[in-house]
Structures are given as C-alpha cells and as structure tokens.
Design a protein that fits this description.
Number of domains: 1
Distance between the termini: 45 Å
Number of strands: 2
CATH topology: Serine Threonine Protein Phosphatase 5, Tetratricopeptide repeat
Largest sheet: 2 strands, antiparallel
Order of helices and strands: EEHHHHHHHH
Organism: Pyrenophora tritici-repentis
Strand content: under 5%
Protein name: Ank-2 domain containing protein
Strand order of the largest sheet: 1-2
CATH class: Mainly Alpha
Helix content: 40-55%
Radius of gyration: 16 Å
Number of helices: 8
Length: about 170
C-alpha cells in the first residue's frame, strides 16, 4: 500500500513510482480551461495540492504557472522547505516531460535531487530519468545534467546500466 504524505498546509496524497518507469496518467478536473488557468485556480485553496501540481505538469502547463502556484504557498520558510521536500514526486512529472526548465525550477524550490525519502515506493530521480529516456527514446541529457549539478548521486545508477558503455569509443 502506498504511503500517504501529509503536512498541515498540504492536501494529503499518495503517489507510487517504484519500478514503474512511466508516469501515471492523471485526469484534469477542469478540461474546459487552459491547464495554466486550472493550476492557478487551485491557488484559491489554502492547502498546497501536490496531485494538482503533478497533473498540471503532466498536461504541459508552463514553467511560469508552476512558479506562480508554488510561490503562492511560500510563507514561513521552514514550512515551505518541508512542503517542497514532501512534494518531490512532482519532479518525476517534470522529468517525464523531459523539461530541463521545469526540473531546474522544482529543484530550486527545494525538491530533492535524491528523490523522496520513501525508497520503497520511488526509484532515484537519476535512475528514473535514464530509464524513462531510454524507454521513451528521449534525450534526457540536459535533465540528467541538472540533476547531477543539483547534487544527485551518480552512484544510484546501477553499474549494469552503464558498464558496457565504458569500452565504446
């Protein structure tokens, strides 16, 4: 069973990505408006909603809409940092979009380049980016560079994923 992540200023949520290299499909609540408008309407809630943010990112919202949404909930810095750490699953949706700009923004807000603390239900972001890129035939180089520059540990990528490439010219 997936754990529930919660914070007093967040809507509790469950997300699981462990051993799943495809981003789950999330359903929009307001398909009658643009995805940016749908996300910005969500700021009417006093609670930060991770699933709404994941949905918006997966449906192609703009970097500016994400910035506005997240900044709306930036009040007390210690609460904000804790919320961003808990919201790290959003990072996977940005990587699933192969968006270096979105990935960079989310990391700057404090989402972890190491992934959520829950290793039972999530694989490290670096591993996810490499596998997702391979399976979707995407060049994830820029996203991977951003993760590494943000402190992701390259040793989280199992050796059998890269050792064959050492001998190639």
């Amino acid at each position: 069973m997936a754990p529930s992540y919660s914070h007093p200023k967040m809507v509790p949520f469950n997300l699981v990505l462990k051993d799943v290299y495809y981003i789950p499909k999330l359903i929009r609540t307001r398909p009658d408006v643009s995805i940016d408008d749908e996300l910005l309407e969500a700021t009417s809630s006093h609670m930060f909603h991770v699933v709404s943010l994941c949905t918006a990112v997966s449906h192609g919202c703009s970097v500016e809409a994400v910035r506005s949404y997240v900044e709306h909930y930036r009040e007390e810095e210690s609460d904000f940092k804790e919320m961003m750490h808990l919201a790290t699953p959003v990072l996977y949706f940005a990587m699933g979009r192969n968006s270096p700009e979105m990935t960079s923004l989310l990391l700057k807000f404090g989402m972890s380049p190491h992934g959520p603390d829950d290793e039972a239900h999530f694989i490290p972001p670096l591993v996810f980016a490499a596998i997702h890129g391979y399976l979707q035939s995407l060049d994830m180089t820029e996203v991977i560079k951003i993760l590494l520059a943000s402190g992701a540990d390259p040793r989280t990528v199992p050796e059998d994923m890269w050792e064959n490439y050492l001998d190639m010219p």
